[in-house]
Write a structure and sequence with these properties.
- The structure is a single chain.
- The chain is an alpha/beta fold.
- It has a six-stranded parallel sheet with strand order 2-1-3-4-5-6, with helices on both faces.
- The chain has three domains: about 5-150, 3-Layer(aba) Sandwich (Rossmann fold); about 160-405, Alpha-Beta Horseshoe (pyruvate-formate lyase- activating enzyme), CATH 3.80.30.20; about 415-465, OB fold (Dihydrolipoamide Acetyltransferase, E2P), CATH 2.40.50.140.
- It has helices spanning about 15-30, 55-70, 80-85, 90-95, 190, 200-210, 235-240, 250-260, 275-285, 300-305, 310-325, 345-355, 385-405; strands spanning about 5-10, 30-35, 45-50, 75-80, 100, 150, 170-175, 175, 195, 220-225, 265, 290-295, 330-335, 360-365, 415-420, 425, 435-440, 450-455, 460-465.
- The radius of gyration is 23 Å and the shape is globular.
- It has 13 helices and 19 strands.
- The longest helix is centred in the last third of the chain and has 24 residues, at about 385-405.
Length: about 475
Amino acid sequence: MAKGRYWLQTLGCPKNQVDSDKLAGLLETDGFVPSACPEKADLVVVNTCAFVEAARQESIEAVLELAGARRAGARLVVTGCMAERYGDELASALPEVDLVAGFGRPLAPVGSERMVPVGAPAPRAAPAAAPVPVELGAPRGRTSPPPARSAGLASFDLLSLPRPASAAPWAYVKVAEGCDRRCGFCAIPSFRGTQRSRPPADVLAEVRSLACAQAMPVNEVVLVAQDLASYGRDRTAHHGGARRAGSPTPLVSLVEAVAGMVRRTRLLYLYPSALTSELVEVVLATGVPYFDLSLQHVARPLLARMRRWGDGERFLERIAAIRRAEPRATFRSSFILGYPGETEEDHDELLSFLDAAQLDWAGFFTFSKETGTLAARLEGQVPGELALERLRECVELQDTITARRRDALVGEVREVLVDAPGRGRTVHEAPEIDGVVRLPASLPAGSIADVELTASLGIDLVGAPVGAGR
């Protein structure tokens, strides 16, 4: 007999989605079944994001909305990055919540504290002195119970848990947790810890289980981590030695192995200094020439203030070299506008870079002042209105470039993976963040078809099959 029904809401990046997939598997192993909606769930779980202020605000709003929507007696649990970063502060600030539980770093299991049993009284903790660093607003008319209990950091380790079969013909696979870099703007290492790579055998076992699932075999695996290109370096150091001269890096070996198991292997979040010729070659060999490069800016003095490597000239040289090797290569990146010390000259340099690089996809974000980071203490803070104006200029330019590059694909024939009836992707589109190919609804999800791209509609393309799906 099922213990009850659960509803799980995920906020933030693909790495959070992997955590939620594994959390869902854990709940189902414990006897819970999915609920059709949060209003009918016995257990409501919110997997939060804490990367920047806007993400934290979205997470708080989602928690408050679900607190108001849940049925009487249902338990509300907050987990993920905000739970790990703020712990007891979050529990005190959100009395609507029954438990705040992080899961970032491996600690000893804590038995029944791992998750609130349905119908059981939730333990309570004394309120913390410091407020959660977002605007919470009023409790929306609810009578506030005592503050929620915080289960502390890492009451369980999702990185090592098995996961259920995918509901789509593609899946994110997280290969590492944490990060060893100390970028000036990023607080992730403070609550996710240093890099901790999974053993290759564990990753490959997960990929194999996804690829062999009966209901929906996975045809595309998207490898993700905070610093994907550094995968395995911590394990090499832990075992007391550098890799042998001429031997492939751990990531290259992993990509080769994964590519032998699934039709498509895609990599997200590559630090530019780690984009070696060896890694480029293995990415091209997978047949998915998609390069998601974490550039953040191009002005050398500003990148130095960010504690980042590189400059626009080096980035352009690397992009050009890849395009010479594979003219159909696709590029995505993200950039921060308004980082402390950014000048008009720096901004003009970024605009010039975007025009020269002709990236297929790009995301732009205004600087978020994160407590505990180097950037929070730097002089030269840029007014928010100016940062937003610079962002709009970049978006306007990049939208034109993206539209032009999408138009250039019209008339081409590409292999398309059908994600769902009426929607698919070529190798040029990563799931959930890029455009899609609109297809006839008759093509079943999970099938692969050769498609002629007949039109572009904004960031999306329209495709017509040229042969039978397979």
